[in-house]
């Protein structure tokens, strides 16, 4: 059993239901009970952004339902779950493609800087020789 988000709404206008569902069912498929709603388009300080039936959520948690990461954060904010320390050190590391692009850019910059320095040094040597 999972307590998770089921997406609704139209393209570019998401709206989610917080539901208790069998983990084998599709994201927007069959669910057992609707526990609340989540509207990410509303401001973060709005009371209408996340609405939950906390008694029903607690009942499902007592029955062994596991909340997904996003729902767990909402439950922590509501005070139902205790805050858990999260650590994702790889979050700020760029992906492979971005790292390759950065290396190529650095090589091009180094190659462009090297020839530009050589004529300047030769010109400076000629001026001192005269």
UniProtKB/TrEMBL annotation:
GO CC term, one of those recorded: small ribosomal subunit
Alphabetical list of SUPFAM superfamilies matching this protein: Ribosomal protein S16
UniProt keyword terms in alphabetical order: Ribonucleoprotein, Ribosomal protein
One example of a Gene Ontology biological process annotation: translation
Biased composition (Acidic residues): 118-130
Gene Ontology terms for molecular function: structural constituent of ribosome
Basic and acidic residues bias locations: 97-108
Region Disordered: start-end pairs: 81-130
Keyword Transport attached: no
Transmembrane segments: none
Claim: Ribonucleoprotein is one of the keywords in the record: yes
Pfam families: Ribosomal_S16
NCBIfam families: S16
Family stated for the protein in its record: Belongs to the bacterial ribosomal protein bS16 family.
Protein name: Small ribosomal subunit protein bS16
Top-level taxonomy: Bacteria, Pseudomonadati, Pseudomonadota, Alphaproteobacteria, Rhodobacterales
Name of the encoding gene: rpsP
């Amino acid at each position: 059993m999972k307590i998770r988000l089921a997406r609704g709404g139209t393209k570019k206008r998401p709206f989610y239901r917080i539901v208790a569902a069998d983990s084998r069912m599709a994201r927007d498929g069959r669910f057992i009970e609707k526990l609340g709603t989540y509207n990410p388009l509303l401001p973060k300080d709005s009371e209408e952004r996340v609405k939950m039936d906390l008694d029903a959520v607690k009942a499902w948690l007592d029955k062994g339902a596991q909340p997904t990461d996003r729902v767990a954060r909402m439950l922590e904010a509501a005070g139902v779950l205790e805050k858990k320390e999260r650590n994702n050190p790889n979050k700020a590391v760029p992906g492979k493609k971005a790292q390759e692009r950065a290396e190529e850019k650095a090589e091009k910059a180094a190659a462009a800087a090297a020839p530009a320095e050589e004529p300047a040094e030769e010109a400076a040597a000629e001026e001192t020789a005269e």
